[in-house]
């Protein structure tokens, strides 16, 4: 397929609630993915908006989309319109921080800081890259890169030899075909995040087996 190929969904855009595939659909998808990888129930979420997100977030419904995604709503879910009210009913406190000074690599960028009742927290940075597509580019202080277009397993682990080989072995035993695998490390080299994107469903027993490995801290899933 030629590199400049444009598919029908690139022209028409995604099915969505709201006026903008980048500011509404993409925002909802980023928040939905963030919620998927936070293995606790969030009671407080801070959204820091950069670039054009910071300029137009209310006019384009970015704020409601981000709240709706955190509540588990996909970009075409009509409940996004009532996201503020639904968040209040769910006991979820939200706050928006507008940052027009910090330079970011993409104009549609948001930091999502989630906190649970027991004090657990996770920071996710996402970019809405157009046409409803998104990228997750940071988890806490580790730069990552994945899109959520595949079934995705995110493994946080100590940066020790043998871990990635163990993960791939667990998948191979269940005949799960790996589409992409990348490992990202903290600056100090002690902790890593390995992202595995697969062409099919990852069985629960694979996730459980990976979780039990001695170097693994946490395993999170994004299931389509």
SSE map:
Blueprint lengths: L7 H5 L8 H16 L5 E9 H6 L5 H9 L12 H7 L3 E7 L8 E9 L4 E10 L2 E7 L2 E5 L4 E8 L4 H11 L4 E8 L5 E8 L5 H8 L4 E7 L2
Parallel strand pairs: 1-2
Antiparallel strand pairs: 1-3, 3-4, 4-5, 5-6, 7-9, 7-10, 8-9
Helix pairs in contact: 2-4, 4-5
Structure description:
The protein has 224 residues and is of the alpha+beta class. Helix content is 28%, strand content 35%. A hairpin with a 2-residue loop joins strand 4 (121-130) and strand 5 (133-139). Helix 2 (21-36) runs parallel beside helix 4 and helix 4 (62-70) runs parallel beside helix 5 (83-89). The protein is globular. The two termini are 25 Å apart. 37% of the residues are buried. Residues 1-19 have low confidence and may be disordered.
The spatial strand order of the largest sheet comes to 2-1-3-4-5-6
Q: Strand share of the residues?
A: 25-35%
Structural class: alpha+beta
N-C termini distance: 25 Å
Number of helices, where a helix is a run of at least 4 consecutive DSSP H or I residues = 7
Regarding quaternary structure, what we see is single chain
Overall spatial form: globular
What summary fits the major beta sheet? Answer: 6 strands, mixed
């Amino acid at each position: 397929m030629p590199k400049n190929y444009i598919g029908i969904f690139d022209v028409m855009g995604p099915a969505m609630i709201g006026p903008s595939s980048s500011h509404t659909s993409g925002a909802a998808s980023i928040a939905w993915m963030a919620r998927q990888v936070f293995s606790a129930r969030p009671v407080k979420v801070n959204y820091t908006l950069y670039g054009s997100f910071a300029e137009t977030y209310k006019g384009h419904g970015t704020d409601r989309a981000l709240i709706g995604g955190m509540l588990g709503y996909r970009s075409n879910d009509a409940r996004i319109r009532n996201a503020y009210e639904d968040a209040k009913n769910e006991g979820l406190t939200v706050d928006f921080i507008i940052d027009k000074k910090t330079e970011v690599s993409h104009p549609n960028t948001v930091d999502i800081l989630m906190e649970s009742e027991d004090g657990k927290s996770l920071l996710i940075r996402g970019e809405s890259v157009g046409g409803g597509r998104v990228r997750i580019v940071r988890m806490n202080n580790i730069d990552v890169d994945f899109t959520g277009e595949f079934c995705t397993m995110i493994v946080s682990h100590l940066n020790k030899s043998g871990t990635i080989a163990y993960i791939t072995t667990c998948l191979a035993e269940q005949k799960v075909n790996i589409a992409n695998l990348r490992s990202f490390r903290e600056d100090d080299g002690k902790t890593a995040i390995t992202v595995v994107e697969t062409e099919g469903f990852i069985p629960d027993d694979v996730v459980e087996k990976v979780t039990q490995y001695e170097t693994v801290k946490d395993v999170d899933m994004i299931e389509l």
